């Protein structure tokens, strides 16, 4: 196992090369082996690092220090001081005015690499999930008590001010959603927690529900008070048996303690909570299909509008939030919106839970502030690639995006990813090395959507099947160049014409495959070879 | 159990729960925490927990609290066991099979010397 302590990035855009970045790279290479650091320090070129007049730049992680402009003669000093002795060479730091774009953002964080900051996962792995006393000892249900002393409008304002966005993948402002339900007419309203986490590779909600079930109950109570609901459902994925048992036990305890039921805390708030297990349909994670399923019908998405905030479960105004979104509520109520805004980026405050899997050394779960880059996650939290080099990452299960290595220095938040044309998704990071074939990956993803498509609308039902056929042909060596145009049309139609999120996201892997890895697909068709050696060619 | 009627009630409850926790630790008991999320259980945390219980039983150890918790995030290292000796820092062990349990219990829990071979360092 190769573990990396530090990482050195040398800029290699044309301007940097003109000013000697290749020589700088060679000097680093030689000095690192001279100091015996080659094993623990990873040296790479970085392209696409945003604009800067201070090239050639050298970035050193984990401190996220940027040096520049650097001369070859200055490299020995940097290696000795920074990499060998661990002292930052202040006089060679790149001036901030010379940097812009992405790189300025990294510079602004100099020396303060976002450490793991557990807000959502604070109690997970610390308390006994089956004991309500453990939860109360960790300030449990305090936020509910606090919220009940405020008016519902004040609670919604706090959530809006905090800038919390939905963590299920779409990133819709939570405060806004709450205010829609609050304003919707009708005496009967519902709160639903979407725990039907079916994105392959995502397991953040499971960990939350298994490790800290009372947090979800408390958040739903606060939400119910804020929007004026008196009944709630937790729609949990059927496979999550352990989480289901722990939730049911937690609800029972909460009822005994008087947190659920009638006249909670003597405030007049009534709330009853039910748990409903799904039956293994991916589409039921889509909010309107989830509602249909709760009503006992086939899990097929509804046409929108009307949105669930006005006409949801049994035609009543309904609030649907993801588990992780809800888990952010109690700390925001206790510490305030200002405190929450201090974490993450201005456009996407707070933290995000990521599940890391794939060709990396340490797989698992982390919670870091929004705006960390993919490169930082791979090198620092996943302790480097297990074998080979980074080729691409898949965010958010099947419904996310394929991130090529050129985008690995983009801050990971909703805004920046949207600008880069990719989606953050639900928080799974599948890291792939160069042994993964893009056609193979796309085939697996499309097949998943084909199987999970509910069949209600044509683009999704037929489109996924057709795309799979074409991809299978390409991977068998029977592809034609016209297939690429058809795939492009299919991806466009899937995104534009599908009824719900399932079909819409089914188009994205196709689109990104053609955007970022077109050459590799063409090699399959024209040359009859698979560059990564995954696909078996028959002709 | 009394139902909680107000925020004051809750505060009292919290203090009581905290006091109970402090009682546990201040009486010089050793805490052994086993990560029992789905990942841990799939990796064999139940066997690990059973081995710990059996060891405690067969060696007639006293003043030991064994409890479970959720996933702490290091899935590649499951099953994960944490040992907290009274007044000391938490020590995290990874890949704890029933055989390793024996070593950890003998060396760390009984003799008080953490076993560096199986420790997870961040």
Give the termini separation of chain A. Answer: 38 Å
Q: Which strand-content bin applies to the residues of chain B?
A: 15-25%
Number of domains in the coordinates of chain A? 4
Largest sheet of chain A: 5 strands, mixed
Name the assembly state: heterodimer
Query: In terms of structural class, how would the helical and strand content of chain B be classed?
Result: alpha+beta
Q: Given the C-alpha coordinates, what overall shape of chain A results?
A: globular
CATH class of chain B: Alpha Beta
- Give the % helix of chain A: 40-55%
Which fold name corresponds to the CATH topology of the largest domain in chain A? Answer: Rossmann fold
Going by CATH, the architecture of the largest domain in chain A would be 3-Layer(aba) Sandwich
CATH topology of chain B: Glutaredoxin
Short description:
The complex is a heterodimer of chains A (539) and B (122). Chain A is of the alpha/beta class. Helix content of chain A is 42%, strand content 14%.
């Amino acid at each position: 196992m190769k573990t990396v302590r530090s990482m050195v990035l040398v800029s290699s855009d044309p301007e940097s090369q003109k000013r000697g970045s290749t020589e700088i790279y060679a000097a680093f290479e030689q000095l690192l082996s001279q100091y015996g650091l080659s094993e623990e320090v990873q040296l790479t070129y970085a392209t696409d690092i945003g604009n800067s007049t201070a090239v050639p730049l050298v970035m050193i992680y984990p401190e996220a220090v940027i040096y520049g402009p650097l001369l070859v003669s200055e490299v020995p000093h940097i290696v000795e001081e920074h990499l060998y002795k661990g002292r930052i060479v202040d006089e060679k730091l790149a001036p901030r005015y010379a940097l812009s774009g992405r790189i300025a953002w990294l510079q602004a964080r100099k020396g303060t690499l976002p450490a793991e900051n557990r807000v959502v996962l604070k109690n997970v792995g610390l308390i006994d999930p089956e004991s309500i006393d453990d939860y109360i000892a960790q300030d449990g249900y305090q936020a509910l008590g606090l919220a009940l002393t405020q008016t519902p409008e004040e609670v919604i304002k706090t959530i809006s001010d905090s800038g919390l966005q939905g963590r299920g993948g779409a990133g819709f402002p939570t405060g806004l959603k709450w205010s829609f339900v609050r304003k919707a007419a009708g005496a009967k309203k519902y709160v639903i927690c979407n725990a039907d986490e079916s994105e392959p590779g995502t397991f953040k909600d499971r960990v939350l529900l298994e490790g800290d079930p009372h947090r979800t109950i408390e958040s739903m109570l606060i939400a119910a008070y804020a929007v004026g609901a008196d009944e709630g459902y937790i729609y949990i994925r059927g496979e999550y048996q352990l989480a289901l048992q722990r939730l049911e036990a937690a609800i029972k305890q909460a009822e005994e303690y008087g947190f659920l039921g009638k006249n909670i805390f003597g405030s007049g708030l009534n709330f009853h909570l039910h748990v409903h297990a799904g039956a293994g349909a991916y589409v039921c994670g889509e909010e309107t299909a989830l509602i249909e399923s709760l009503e006992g019908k086939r899990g097929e998405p509804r046409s929108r509008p009307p949105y669930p905030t006005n006409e949801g479960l049994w035609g009543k105004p309904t609030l649907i939030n993801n588990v992780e979104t809800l888990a952010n509520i109690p700390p925001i109520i206790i510490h305030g919106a200002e405190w929450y805004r201090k974490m993450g980026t201005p456009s996407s405050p707070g933290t995000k839970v990521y599940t890391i899997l794939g060709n990396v050394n340490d797989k698992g779960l982390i919670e870091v502030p929004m705006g960390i880059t993919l490169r930082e996650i791979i090198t620092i939290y996943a302790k480097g690639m297990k074998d080979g080099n980074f080729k691409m990452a898949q965010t958010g299960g099947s419904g996310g995006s394929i991130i090529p290595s050129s985008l690995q220095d983009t801050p990971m938040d909703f805004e920046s990813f949207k600008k880069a044309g990719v989606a953050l998704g639900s928080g799974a990071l599948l890291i792939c090395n160069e042994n993964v074939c893009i056609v193979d990956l796309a085939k697996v993803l499309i097949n998943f959507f084909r199987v999970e498509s509910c069949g209600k609308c044509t683009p999704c039902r037929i489109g996924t099947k057709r795309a799979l056929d074409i991809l299978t042909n390409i991977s068998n060596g029977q592809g034609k160049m016209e297939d690429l145009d058809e795939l492009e049309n299919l991806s466009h139609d899937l995104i534009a014409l599908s009824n719900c999120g399932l079909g819409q996201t089914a188009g994205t892997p196709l689109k990104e495959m053609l955007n970022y890895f077109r050459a590799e697909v063409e090699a399959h068709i024209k040359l009859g070879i698979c560059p990564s050696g995954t696909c078996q060619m028959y002709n | 159990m009394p139902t909680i009627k107000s925020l004051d009630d809750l505060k009292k409850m919290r203090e009581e729960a905290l006091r109970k926790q402090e009682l546990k630790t201040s009486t010089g008991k050793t805490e052994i925490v086993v990560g029992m999320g789905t990942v841990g259980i799939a990796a064999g945390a139940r066997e690990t927990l059973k081995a710990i219980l059996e060891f405690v039983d067969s060696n007639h150890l006293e003043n030991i609290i064994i409890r479970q918790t959720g996933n702490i995030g290091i899935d590649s290292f499951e099953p994960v066991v944490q040992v907290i000796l009274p007044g000391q820092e938490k020590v995290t062990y990874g890949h704890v099979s029933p055989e390793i349990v024996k070593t950890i219990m003998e060396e760390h829990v009984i003799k008080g010397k953490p076993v560096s071979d199986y420790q997870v360092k961040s």
